[in-house]
Amino acid sequence: HIKKVEESLSGLGKRSLRFVQKIGVVRFNPFSNTGGDQSFALALLDGEASGIVVLSLHGREGTRIYVKPIKLGKSLYELSKEEKQAIEEAKENK
User: Fold this and answer.
1) Which of 37, 53, 39, 49 is nearest to 86 (CA)?
2) What is the full per-residue pLDDT of the chain (94 aa) written as tens digits?
3) What is the pTM (predicted TM-score) of this model?
4) Is 48:90 a contact under the CB 8 Å cutoff?
5) Which of 52, 54, 49, 50 has the alpha carbon at shortest distance from 93?
6) Are 54 and 24 within 8 A, CB to CB?
7) What are the angstrom distances between the C-alpha of 83 and each of 22, 38, 53, 63?
């Protein structure tokens, strides 16, 4: 019975690497004509620093939202300073 429990725990440990484990949020103001830090970059990463980064840009005319995939801490898409900062913050969260 102990062997089955050990195998089960080992499998759970491997699967848990794919769960969201690390979160980083950066609030900022991208436009000088709006008040407050209503825009944000949000990184949601698993145990291998893979996941997504969400960028929300809030302006007077509306809000735009962008999502970029992250694989092992990097993206195929160009990342803004705030997105990079959110990813680094998430990777530091243990």
Assistant:
1) 53
2) 888 888 887 877 777 778 899 999 999 998 776 667 899 999 999 999 999 999 999 888 889 999 999 999 999 999 999 999 999 999 997 6
3) 0.83
4) no
5) 49
6) no
7) 14, 15, 7, 17
